[in-house]
Every structure is written in C-alpha cells, then in structure tokens.
Amino acid sequence: MDMGSELAYDYRVLKLGGSLITCKDLPRCVRLELLRKVSEEIKKFIDENPNEKIILLHGGGSFGHYEASIFDDSRTVRTSEAMQELNYMVTKQLLKSGINVISIPGKFYTFDIVLNALEKGLVPLIYGDIKFDASIISADDMSIDIAKKLNARLLFAIDKAGILGRDGRVISELRRIDEVGRLLQANYYDVTGGISSKIQKIFENNLNAMIFDGSKAGNIYLALKGYNIGTLVRGNPNA
C-alpha cells in the first residue's frame, strides 16, 4: 500500500550514517560541530516545507559498531548503552536546533510507532540498536522498511561523496548491483555489512535511494530538496 499517498504528505527518510556523525578512529566520539550544521540544514528544510514530513534515523559508528564488534558476556548491554548515549547527543542537538524530534530505540521499532509520531506532528528519530537476544537491528534496514511503506524519498548521508569507482570518481547512478561488486569496502567496525549491504538491500526492495556526502555544507538540505548530489541507486527504474 502506498501509505504516503494515503496520508496526503510527501515524505523524506534521512539516515545519518554512523561514520558521518562519529569520529571514525576514536571509540565513542561525536562530531559535534558537524552534527550542529546537519541539524540546522534539516531545520531549514522543515521550515520551508511544512507539507513534507521527515523521518530521521542514525547509525552506530564508533559507538554501537565498536561495542558490538567485541564479543564478550556484556556485549548486549554495552552496545545498548552506547547507542543510548549517542542517540542522546543527536537528540539534544536536533532539539537545540528547534526540531520537534522524538527518539525511538531500534529494539522497539514498529512502523505503527513511526506513523503515530508523525500524526502527532513529531519528527521520529530511530536509531540502530541491539535486541535482547544480542542480534543487531540496523538503521539501514529500518530506513528501507519505512521508505518502502511510505513511498518516500530515501537518503543516506555518509562521510564520502557517494559510491566511488576505480578512478576515485563518484558514480552518479547505479542500475545493477553487479556494477559495483568488488569496488565496495566495509568500514572496520561496521558489523551490519557496510555500503555493499546497503546497496544490495536497496535493489532487493525495488527502491531508489541517494547516497551522498552529508559532511559537505548544504548537502543535507539539497538532498532533502531532491537534488542529485551523490550516487543515485536506482533499484526501481520505473519510478
């Protein structure tokens, strides 16, 4: 069902990559100045587009992915605590920028909860998490689920210009998963499969998604506005 059309709104699903908002080589470190700029760009879009709804998600970066990569008896509780800490800092900055954000832990995610938040005029902020059985719930997976159900524009803000080819240049559009194959490399701490898994899931779910550099000034705003500023993964060539 095209829930987006049914609810009479245009939607944007924006996932802030963990590698974007945290320090890549330093466990439990947030890029606070970048997070401030990202929040301001999101706020600008919201103010200018009152008839469009945003769903935000964020990954684990050097918080959740780092802790989840250490397999010991306290892995589950450490990872859960790390993600709560990161989410608190992201939520605090978004609120400071004037965004009516409401935090939703990934372990409790349902699509109905997201709809309920939207209906109350709130901006859902869902984060990647670890379940009680120690399995990881990826923010990528949740963002894809939401975008598919809402027929929404799907945006992945990462710390690179897009998907890079062998020559180091951004690939402007991907139409088949086999076009990238061996070009992709996962980050050291990324236990959810990295960029390769992200692209595969986009194709499997017949979605179109933009993967772009969220650290470049203005890019978050431009992506929300609909500009092609990175790599368009065209999993649905008919859309």
TrEMBL record:
<keyword id="KW-0414">Isoprene biosynthesis</keyword>
<feature type="domain" description="Aspartate/glutamate/uridylate kinase">
    <location>
        <begin position="12"/>
        <end position="204"/>
    </location>
</feature>
<keyword id="KW-0547">Nucleotide-binding</keyword>
<dbReference type="GO" id="GO:0005829">
    <property type="term" value="C:cytosol"/>
</dbReference>
<dbReference type="GO" id="GO:0016301">
    <property type="term" value="F:kinase activity"/>
</dbReference>
<comment type="similarity">
    <text>Belongs to the isopentenyl phosphate kinase family.</text>
</comment>
<keyword id="KW-0808">Transferase</keyword>
<dbReference type="GO" id="GO:0016114">
    <property type="term" value="P:terpenoid biosynthetic process"/>
</dbReference>
<protein>
    <recommendedName>
        <fullName>Isopentenyl phosphate kinase</fullName>
        <ecNumber>2.7.4.26</ecNumber>
    </recommendedName>
</protein>
<dbReference type="Pfam" id="PF00696">
    <property type="entry name" value="AA_kinase"/>
</dbReference>
<dbReference type="InterPro" id="IPR036393">
    <property type="entry name" value="AceGlu_kinase-like_sf"/>
</dbReference>
<keyword id="KW-0418">Kinase</keyword>
<dbReference type="InterPro" id="IPR024192">
    <property type="entry name" value="Fosfomycin_R_FomA-type"/>
</dbReference>
<dbReference type="GO" id="GO:0102043">
    <property type="term" value="F:isopentenyl phosphate kinase activity"/>
</dbReference>
<dbReference type="GO" id="GO:0005524">
    <property type="term" value="F:ATP binding"/>
</dbReference>
<dbReference type="InterPro" id="IPR001048">
    <property type="entry name" value="Asp/Glu/Uridylate_kinase"/>
</dbReference>
<keyword id="KW-0067">ATP-binding</keyword>
